Amino acid sequence: MTTKANSTVTAGSVVVPYGHVIGNEKWRGSEVAQKLQGKVRLIFEDGLGLVDFHLSNRTCILYISEADLVAGDEYKRRVVRFRNASNLRGLVIVEKTQISGQYFSAVQKLVVLELGMVLLPVANQGEAAQLIVQLVREQSRDQSSNPFLRKQRPQLAEPALLQTAQHIPGVGKTKALLLLQHFGSIHRLCNASIGELERVVGQAAAQQIHSFLCS
Fold first, then answer.
1. For residue 138, how many other CB atoms are within 10 A of its CB?
2. pLDDT digits over 121-170, tens only?
3. Cβ–Cβ under 8 Å, residues 82 and 3
4. Which end of the chain has the smaller Cβ count within 10 Å, N or C?
């Protein structure tokens, strides 16, 4: 699915109940929408502008598909406008496949290094749906204003989170499992300091992970 640009970001005014996801109408009938059905309460709206999925606690997702990457640089303009909407806590999900992998370093440079946003690579829409479900569950368990600071007993990582963590340079399956068991969520991993990461995976890997996730 190639997404067309929209100059308006309107989802910041939307109130989303916990356990719900508001999806952009353009995703109706897609694989990611089908995978979300029955796992979260999914509602479609046609006024979300640039936002693809709006979660509770003002967290919004911009989804960059394989087709978006192959089509050219329009996705870059979408990301910049998305970042400039200061009332949103934005996450960027990008499809990293055999076809789109060659464009991933450019996406990483823009999203992480230049704009200072969280970038979460997935292999396909099914994996993206699993990740969105996990994010919704995390926020539903902690209804504080900042889900990034949630403190919970570590749990075994779900497959989608484990696969996402393994996309980080220098992180294999073992380190990904250790990281997710220690931090409990992708949100907390993305906001961990170098010192916190070093205690789990060592200095060299901690530097790589921190450079990848944080600007």
1. 21
2. 999 999 999 989 888 877 666 544 444 434 433 344 455 666 677 777 77
3. no
4. C
